[in-house]
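tool_log.txt
---
The assistant was asked to compare two proteins side by side. It first ran the structure predictor on the initial sequence, then on the second. Raw inputs and outputs are pasted verbatim so the downstream comparison step can read them without reformatting.
(1)
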Amino acid sequence: MSKIDREALVERLLRYVQIDSETGDEGEMARRLEEDFRALGCVVTTDDVHEAAQTTGSNIYATLPGDPSLEPLMLSAHMDTVIPGKGVRPRVCEDGYIRSDGSTVLGGDDKAGVCAIMEAMKAVSATTHRTVEAVITVREESGLVGAKNLDYSRIHAKKAVVLDTGGTGGDIITRAPGQNKIVAVIHGKKAHAGSSPEKGISAIQAAAHGVAAMNLLRVDEETTCNIGTFMAEGPTNIVNATARLVLEVRSRSEEKLEAQTKHLVDCFEEACRKFGAQLETEVTTSYLGFSLSEEEPLVQWLFQAAREVGLEPKTVGSGGGSDANIYNRHGITAVNIGVGMEKVHTTEEQLSIKDMTNTAEMICRLLQP
């Protein structure tokens, strides 16, 4: 069985996180990955998603041909990072973690996934292995945009493993939520706040009344809800006539997702009726959830591979979406697995070298008969 070169894996990670690739600006990273996949012996193509995805980069499709008698497998990660992700200065720490200097994120989300995929492909390239279709996406962090704009006619595998969450490879996400976004604009009426405030309708007051009636944050074990934007600017001597709010709902239950979304809109509608304001709402489904059985063959493959590298596998539910959500809606059975990232989307982000290496080892087992 092939073994991962831990030192090479770490060196690749250190190189990649120093390539700026904030979401929407992945051009340099995409070019580097294209070159490096070709160096591994892959057939590499890119797509033209610049306009549709509003990015400087491209999705990468890299195929490592293998034994045609073995079922092909798709491996996926994303190349973009959240902000602040420019000028990352990584350091390998004595406790077995890789961190930035604290002024930026590390970018292990999801360059750890990219590196684990590439080192696993390199490790099995000289052995008997199944055909690997590596798909590295752009703009995952800004709404799974790259995955939504993939050319699925280029992908032949019907099973996929996404490497894009915390924990070890033995942490297998088989249940993930869908997400709705709600933009609400409340229109009131201007009036002088000193001489005739009663002639005005405060959009802020109506919006606040609606928010106060909402069930927010942790709704239940499957459902969450959050307000990201509440914006209403103006001078204090004028009753403010416009408020804009942006909210999200996530749930692993489609019924709960729709029920919570309706609850939010109902709260705004009631508040606007109470104060005489007008409401505009726009509800967008960002992605739908998925739920796979533990008996699903792909999950069983992963259970076996995890045990072979000394990990204790378990299926878990997630509170966040990933490219796996999109793949499952395109006829590709997909799960998301851990690759050692912690405290993601913060400047305290860190990456466990041990967990990243174990996941790469697990992928090697998955690719070989």
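(2)
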Amino acid sequence: MGGIRLDLLPQAADVETVVLLSKLKVDHHIEIELKMDELDLTAAESKATYDEIKAYVLNKYGLKVSQLYIAQIKRKCGIIERKNYNVSKKEDAKVPQCPPEKEAAIMDALKHFQMI
């Protein structure tokens, strides 16, 4: 027989976990040291997603931009991306470059989201 599941905030994107902690042996303990610098996110990591950037550029400029173009501009600004495993096997693969008007729009979006 399972417990009752109740979602008090169905529209919320966050998930909260409640845990009951108990100490069986009070004479034993574990010490944990967390350094805050190891936990800190970079400004870029805590900001907008690709979809949010695309939506901003579309709404403000009426331009559709690809994830490729966004990645190119982020790289140009020094924002480190994770490794892309979806790379062409061809040595002479042509990669389209972001046009100047889309580059300016993406740069504006990155500034808007305080990523640069």
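---
observation on (2): Residues 14 and 77 are 30 Å apart (CA to CA). The chain is about 35% helix and 0% strand.
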